[in-house]
Amino acid sequence: MDEPPEEYETPYPMTPNPHDQNDGQDSYTPYQGYSGDQGTPAHTPGPGTELYGDHYGTPQQNLGGVQYDDQGASSGEEQGYEPSPAHHTEPTSSPAQDNPPSPALGGRVTRARLRNANQPTPPPAPPPAKRLERDERTTRTRRGGGARRTYNENDEDSTLYAIIKLARASLQTVVDEWIEAYKVNRDSALLALMQFFIHASGCKGKITQAMAANMEHAAIIRKMTEEFDEESGEYPLIMSGQQWKKFRGNFCDFVGTLVKQCQYSIIYDQYLMDNVISLLTGLSDSQVRAFRHTATLGAMKLMTALVDVALVVSINLDNTQRQYESERQKTRDKRASDRLENLLTKRQELEENMDEIKNMLTYMFKSVFVHRYRDTLPEIRAICMAEIGVWMKKFHQNFLDDSYLKYIGWTLHDKVGEVRLKCLQALQPLYASEELKGKLELFTSKFKDRIVSMTLDKEYDVAVQAVRLVISILKHHRDILTDKDCEHVYELVYSSHRAVAQAAGEFLNERLFVPDEVASVQRTKRGKKRAPNTPLIRDLVQFFIESELHEHGAYLVDSLIESNAMMKDWECMTDLLLEEPGPNEEPLDDRQETSLIEIMVCCVKQAATGEAPVGRGPNRKQSPSMKEIKQVQDDKQRLSEHFIGTLPDLLDKYSADADKLVNLLSIPQYFDLEIYTTTRSEASLDLLLKRIQLITEKQHDTEVLETAAKTLEYLCTEGFAIYTRCDVQRSTLIDTIVNKYKEAMDEWNSLIEGEETPDDDETYSVVNSLKKVSIFYSCHNLGNWNIWASLFKDVEEAKDGVTSLPEEAVKFSISACYFAVLWDLHRIEELIEGGAATDDAIMESKSRLNMFVEVMKAMLTQQASQVYKEEAYLVVCDLLIVFCSQLHTNTHFALGGLVYEPDKQLQSILIDFIQNNVFTYEEDEELDEHSKIAELHKRRNFLASYCKLIVYSIMPTSAAADVFKNYVKSYNDYGDIIKTTVGKAREINKVNCARTMVAALTSLFKDLQQDMRGIRLSRTMEEFTSLKELAKRFALSFGLDAVRNREAITVLHREGILFAVAQNEMVEDPTGPPPNLPFLEILTEFTNKLLKQDKRIVLTFLDRRISMGMPSSRGEDWQPLLLYRNSLVHGETDQPIVTSKRAYSRKKKEIIEDEMGDMDDENNSDTEFMPGLNLDGKKKKQQRMKQYKGDRSMSPPMNQFNATTESPINYSVDNLATSSRPQRQCARFSFCYIDNFSDDEVA
């Protein structure tokens, strides 16, 4: 490696490169400016103010005296660099006789030129003889005496590029070997390095010794450009795969390691860096993307490495300055004059080193960065932004200035998200540093609005980084953010993207939820000390109320729960609800209490499950880590211990408030039930069960009852010590519910039998008793209470129209019967698992199922109440899912007897319900907006229930035709459901799905014809255009894999053609087109999904079916056929202008084969239409071809579209090609056929 000079240990003058005396006398090779007419896509001449155009404002706005203007492009007259020959010229005289150059010669005068100018340069010691022999081969000895590595550019495996790409040695070893080779023969070593950059760009061109010696870098780059193979468009930096990803990292590390190992002398020898910078500057200005990308990355990493060197030099300079000042302040008798002189010399040399590094950095910044930061390639722009951020952080004395910051500010408007992200990542460490915040005030005031607006970026990664940057701005420039700026970020806590929401939650913590360490201690009315988080939770509740998004409390909690401990401060929350406020506190109003309970329950749910809210979780479910599992267990235990004691009091306090009870009653569902036993809290359990029973008896709110039933179901989980206690209480509660139901029904029936009219209280009692039976039946088996007969009797009477029960009561009776059937199935499964006899239970369950479904079918077909129909429809759909053929797969075959498959009648009934209740497009103007949303939600549920039957193959795919045909018309309301159904149907069977699509299209086409009432269908009407749009949607659903969809697409065309060419029984004009012929224009939307060979098969199939026609076929009515045929012909070519005999005979053979196939009968042709399936037809065709070849006098039959016969439909050559050899309309593609045959085939 390049060892540190002696003066780093002892105070002697520095000698930059003592290894070769030629270094001090070689003429200077400057950086090539490449400042002529810029031809790259990146550099558009013009001032920096036009970087983003008027849309982004004026970047040159003068702010506080600092002009945000673009740095001028570098030229040959950069400061400290004067134009001179670009290539290195070896001195003609011996080094001992040369004198140091003077400034008058026009070269750059630096301390490397003038160091020790008055002292004679000692001649170098001659190397050993063996070393001289090896120098001729430009080899070097490895450490440890191993074999020498030779950078032989003729051997691809020994080049620097191959060594680094294949990682044959550590980068440290590779660099050290290269440095030793450089010390022996720097021309060869430099050539190897230059070749590395060329190869790393994907160019296989080679730079020879002669080229390096006699050609300027610009000429070499032009030569390499000519040899570059750009056909593939790939090069190492963008190629995929682990090897290339590793190479990119090794490439960057190699440049950094090379500069680091050469930092003490070689980088100052005015040869290595001058040539490398010149080459990279030229390559970065190339039109070739690979050169530009690779060279820019190399140049930026080179600048980063030079920044690291500058930091080392800066530290040494500071140390030397301190030593010098310390020595100078000593008294004359204690001062060492030699040491003082050496320190002064060392300081001057370090200052010169620093100046030279700054010159390099300045030159490269102006020559590379200024042009490439706005390159057309986003990867290059991202590289520039990433590296300038590193420079600003590491070498802020030089780079953290508004003249450099402006480039980041302007690029914040970049169109590519990755570039914007790099800008924000570059700014993040700058704002996070307390030391640097003073240098960012002007930049912040200029670009603050843009940074805040980027929190709403469409790229979520950019938005997350923008929020974090705003947090840093808030910490160090708190006054610069306005309330409006903060509100933009506040709203993001409700974002559907979790990372953005959690970043916004961190901002909320920094802005609003800051603990007041000097606040006075607050106490409750009875003197209990309030928790420190009390004011913060009050603020959280107020924030939740003001956001007016009360249905999204789970989103707010998820945004804050991982970053703020107050979200799990259960004691603080329950104290606010249960404790009376102190003398200096304001009590919570009803709205605040409701909001606090909502937030508290969301916190409980997420803490106990560790699951994010619905719609915000990760796209892919990842298994939680052991740390996360442990955290969830600990949180669940703590909240269980707390709420076991406090929840009964909360239920007692809010027992009359349904909104609060819905949330509070759900808390036990997240308990660790073992805590009741371990903490001996059975008394609290009894109290909780008693509260649930009282609430169930008093409350009639549906949500409250459903939550109470689910909570009781969880508490009665078998396997826990508390099961027996909870089961007894459950039985008592169900007894109460059933008894009240029986009492209400007895009283109702008595009134009806006495021909009395029940009043509102009696009606209310019946409805609510049935509601509780239905709701608790959904979670608990009420079979032992024997209420099936009573419930089913009420349903039957409602079906027959003889019931006097209210509609809502009958609805709950239907629901209860449905759950009764499900519990019967569950009981049978338990009997099977226990090994008990199940025959009687299965027969009873089967009987109940059949009777119940028959009653539901009757309700759907009769003129019954709409409420009955809707409930019956949902029940039937769900029962078909539960009792489907999958029961056959059970280990006990007896369950197969319970399978219920829908017959044609039931399928028709369900389809009619969908058509009448879902696909209705007349809005009820009397409904308000909320009611309209609720109605839409109900209809979507109806449609989803039906589509599930298709997706789970309970009903055939063809039953979805009536759903598919509404895809476009009802896209806004049901598009997502129908799209998913189409996709699932295609996964089940592509061919059947294609047939269903055709059925949907033909059904709509027939409806359209009926609406026209015998008038010829107009292809320009809106309904026909909508039909074409539906066909286009169907075509897009097949994706891009034409081979996989081949059979389905060909079947779709077959079905469509058969429909289009079908004739009515009563044909008025035998020469006229078929009535459904316009359907071919609809079918055209699917043509681009056909393979090329299948287009010809479809075309032949079409020609066989269109047998009617007269000269009138040229009319407008026949245009759909022309359009369809042209779409099938598209992709074929005209006959070649020049062809050989062999080519002609080959074509003739193809024509004969195609036309011989037309002799097949109808059935065989239909089978042949399926590609790859008709083996018999293929054999018959081969036999006929043999006959034809044996008897050349037999002419092949021509089909009706052959140009050699009289065509039934006279298509012009300009519009249509023959079916045997379709022609492209544009003759300019005919050359494609000529290339298929060699010249020797021409007769």
TrEMBL record:
- Is-annotated flag, keyword tRNA processing? no
Q: Which family does it belong to?
A: Belongs to the SCC3 family.
Q: Does the keyword Coiled coil apply?
A: yes
Task: Report the domain of life of the source organism.
Answer: Eukaryota
- The signal peptide, as residue positions, is none
Q: Where is the composition biased (Basic residues)?
A: 1178-1187
Biased-composition ranges for Pro residues?
120-129
Gene Ontology cellular component?
chromatin; cohesin complex; nucleus
InterPro entries (UniProt xref): ARM-type_fold, Cohesin_Scc3/SA, HEAT_SCC3-SA, SCD, STAG
Q: Which SUPFAM superfamilies match?
A: ARM repeat (SSF48371)
Q: Which Pfam families match?
A: HEAT_SCC3-SA, SCD, STAG
Spell out the residue ranges making up region: Disordered. 1-152, 1157-1198
Domain (SCD): residue spans on this chain: 369-454
Comp. bias (Basic and acidic residues)? 130-139
Composition bias, Polar residues = 24-38
UniProt keyword terms in alphabetical order: Coiled coil
Q: What is this protein called?
A: SCD domain-containing protein
Q: What does the record list as coiled-coil region(s)? A: 333-360
